[in-house]
Amino acid sequence: MVRRIGICSLNLLLLTVSFGAVYGDIYEQFFRQTKSLINDAVIAGSKVRQCSCEEQNECIKEMDAQSSECVESCWSGFSQIVTNPQDLRKCFTETDHIVKDFTSCFAFNFDACSNATAESTTQKVDIAKFFGLGFERVHKTMILLGKQLSAPLRKVLTTSGNFMTCLNECFVKKNSKGFCFDKKICQPSLIDTKSKSFSRLCPRLADWKKKGGEICDCSTKAGLTELKPYCPMLRQMADRRSSKKQPSRT
Questions:
Q1: May I ask which residue range the UniProt record assigns to the signal sequence (predicted)?
Q2: Which of 61, 124, 134, 188 has the fewest CB atoms within 10 Å, i.e. is most exposed?
Q3: Contact assessment for residue 36 and residue 134, using Cβ atoms and an 8 Å cutoff
Q4: Cα separation of 119 and 114, whole Å?
Q5: Quick count: other Cβ atoms within 10 Å of Cβ 139?
């Protein structure tokens, strides 16, 4: 379940790089939405065994592999807006660690698993419903965003939406006989959090924007010329963020 959040974040990363001025700090927003999605997918009155950390690691690795396969198979859809989708893919290769860092940070900062000898239980979540609600929410957000964009940018957004749909269908198909957590008859405990601030919880990921300008420039060279006007803005965002982190001189 945690890794699926990562798949959404890849699409959201693409959207943020393209439309950062509209969204602002989308990771902070997405983090809050994820907590809401989990609560909405809770099966009232139903408990399940909390996964051991070993079980959770196994499931995250399995779902990570599944999602990576889906990304590769769905990426060709960007041929609708660029001549060579793999050139565009290279622009995001260096940011792949962001997705993995996101899922790891999200899981392991919540005490989601348990290494206790005594077996513990947690509130059960309908995993399929969680995925469905997540996809639906991202889709609605993209529609609202599309209304604010010019026709060329809407085409980029539509293609990103098709990519998201492909990812969703691919991942669901791979787990049609049950998700890893279902097979282990356990789930991570994701209801309670230690922190309300994503930037405080995952400080390394809060700095991802410093790559925004570079990715935008690369994407433009790969054929997404519609993004070119946004690249200077993203570079400025990165410069401001870096300057704030410079130690004061005495």
A1: 1-24
A2: 61
A3: no
A4: 8
A5: 13
